[in-house]
Amino acid sequence: MSSEPKSPTPTPGDTYKGWLFKWTNYIKGYQRRWFVLSNGLLSYYRTQAEMGHTCRGTINLATANIVVEDSCNFVISNGGAQTYHLKASSEVERQRWITALELAFDTGNNSDDSCEDGPSAPPASGHGGGRTLDIQSTLRTLGSKVEDLDTCNDLIVKHGSALQRSLSELEGIQPGADVGDKMRQVTERATLFRITSNAMINACRDFLSLAQNHSKRWQKALQLERDQRVRLEETLEQLAKQHNHLERAFRGATVLPSSNSNPALGSKGSLSGKGDSSDEDDNNVFFDAMEEPAEFITVPADPKYHRRSGSNVSGFSNETGMDDLSVNFDELSVASSPESPQSLELEPVRQRRTRIPDKPNYYLNLWSIMKNCIGKELSKIPMPVNFNEPLSMLQRLSEDLEYFELLDKASKCQSSLEQMCYVAAFTVSSYSTTVHRTGKPFNPLLGETFELDRLRECGYRSLCEQVSHHPPAAAHHAFSEKGWTLRQEITLASKFRGKYLSIMPLGAIQCMFAKSNNHYSWKKVTTTVHNIIVGKLWIDQSGEIDVVNHKTGDRCHLKFAPYSYFSRDVPRKVTGVVTDKDGKAHYVLSGTWDEKMEFSRIMQSSKSENGAEGKQRTVYQTLKAKEIWRKNPLPEGAETMYFFSSLALTLNEPEEGIAPTDSRRRPDQRLMEDGHWDEANAEKQRLEEKQRTVRREREREVIKAAQTPDEGPHQDSHQALWFEKTDDAQSGETLHVYKGGYWETKDSGAWDMCPDIF
């Protein structure tokens, strides 16, 4: 809406038009419509082009009631038959519409406020009785003059006709006849016609004089009224701007203390150009998420806490909720731990690639493929590589380790609550690579693996294996020399709903620290890909995550706010609170999942009064927030390389000594990366058919084994090569855990046990 020209100030009698959002239903929410206000009628159309032929609805303002709900919303109703719930793009634009509607309402009810008692009289503010009598008296006088004009007109017609007849008779008299009587008759009738004409002229002069006098008064009064309304409108606009500015400042100072360092997020157009112009509105579909009030707000702590934070901590730890073991937050430096004298950054042992071939620009009609797939599981849909990116799901899973430094720092924390902050930031950082990554990763073949050996460079090793095909499940295990272990088994449940695609990761992620024996677990949020059929694809993350320390009972509750075009918060917002086993809050986290996260220590907490939503919120007094994580910038030219990060560019780089089942050896994926998409599609079909053949053979073996006496029905006989099923003591679920042997096999180069899947 910001790209549209500023609407003029409405004036009485003008046609006012512009874009508004009209509530349709709970499925579509608010839809953008073109509204036209003219002659006391408010009509709307889907587009401006429809004005000439298709009106979607009209409401008469003479009997309508206008109710303002909040800064941008208002309702127009005519008693129940018609009700329009409307939303303007801003408070200023809403006020312009309200002004125009009230002017039209007053005009429709003969309540024009522009009449004045005299040229020097000030504008009246109400429907005064004196002004009404003055108007009625003037109208009666003008009506009387009009009646006089009608009478004079009738007399002129009558006497003119009589005079015409007399002249005709005079012309028909024979010569020598007595014409005296006829001449007297003509003279009398001419005299009557002259008198009547003079009366008509006098009446016209009086009417014109009276009309001119009143017209000057009314025009001057109307101009005064318009000038006053313009001044009031300008004043209101300035007040609305100041109000919005103060409100943003208030939100920035409370909900996100350091959001002023992130101004780019405040733009509505920062997400794939949404709302840039009216030309794109019909192509882009937005989902109007309900904007829930914040569960808590933060305010700067009292200065006494800053003064005392360096000493006598235990003196107020019970009141402020500080951990007795934690150090001064403002001087916190986990890198200063004497545990490891080594530098966090090790010199790379090999030069990794920084580019891949540019993505070809091939056109493909998505709807021709997707129209028969609505409601189906995504993993069961045969998709050409045109919709993929040249990475497998195992490699995407390994990308979670891009910000491994957060776990390195967490392993050095002396306090479990501080460690929780770094673990929570790590969970958020795993989504930062998805903001522009709209390509679908390759579904791994059963038994496919992927190793990420960064032991000499970064101090960690990672291994993924596809342990199940239906449902698709991948097991992941990573360990670091810095004392942490990460493992997860993720199953993706996905549904295509026509306009959007929902991807729901199932399964838990676990992180263990050797020094403290702290054991953390959490689950992933839902990923939604919007505008699947029409418009520009864009991705959103929404939901809640509970990071739990099973040893201490500490917990961090993270909330990923769903994107809403009408929300005043920054897009892709994430907030969280770290609490101990007793539920006492110690840290607040805030930021966005695509740029950065900050955390601040809570010094004191209290309950606020019930707000407008009727919900009581917690107010946290915090120290100054510190940045805990920031997204690495994308490499140059990333937009032509599938928006890969620097790590993602290296994941499919060929390496020596890897397993024959490694994703880097997958031929269709390699062909796609090289730009040979037709050959990649053919190779993809060959691999999938080969996998189906192997699975049918395995099912026949299961059926044959099931016929053996004393044996019950068998499931899929596939056994993972590097992972084994075990019952997890923390979650109570059965999952695949790394059983060892892979890295030893790599050192020896004996890959004979690996299946031929490619």
Helix and strand topology:
Elements: E1 16-25, E2 29-38, E3 41-45, E4 57-60, E5 65-68, E6 73-77, E7 83-87, H1 91-108, H2 129-171, H3 180-254, E8 296-300, H4 303-308, H5 317-320, H6 366-370, E9 388-392, H7 393-398, H8 405-411, H9 416-429, E10 440-442, E11 449-454, H10 455-458, E12 460-468, E13 473-480, E14 484-496, E15 500-506, E16 508-513, E17 519-523, E18 526-530, E19 538-549, E20 555-560, E21 573-579, E22 585-592, E23 596-607, E24 618-622, E25 626-630, H11 646-651, H12 667-673, H13 677-706, E26 723-727, E27 734-738, H14 742-748
Parallel strand pairs: 8-24, 9-10
Antiparallel strand pairs: 1-2, 1-7, 2-3, 3-4, 5-6, 6-7, 11-12, 12-13, 13-14, 14-15, 14-16, 15-18, 16-17, 17-19, 18-19, 19-20, 20-21, 21-22, 22-23, 23-24, 23-25, 26-27
Helix pairs in contact: 1-3, 2-3, 8-9, 12-13
Q: What does it look like?
A:
This protein has 758 residues and is an alpha+beta fold. The chain is 31% helix and 24% strand. The chain contains 14 helices and 27 strands. The strands form four sheets. The chain has a seven-stranded antiparallel sheet with strand order 4-3-2-1-7-6-5, with helices on one face. The N terminus is likely disordered.
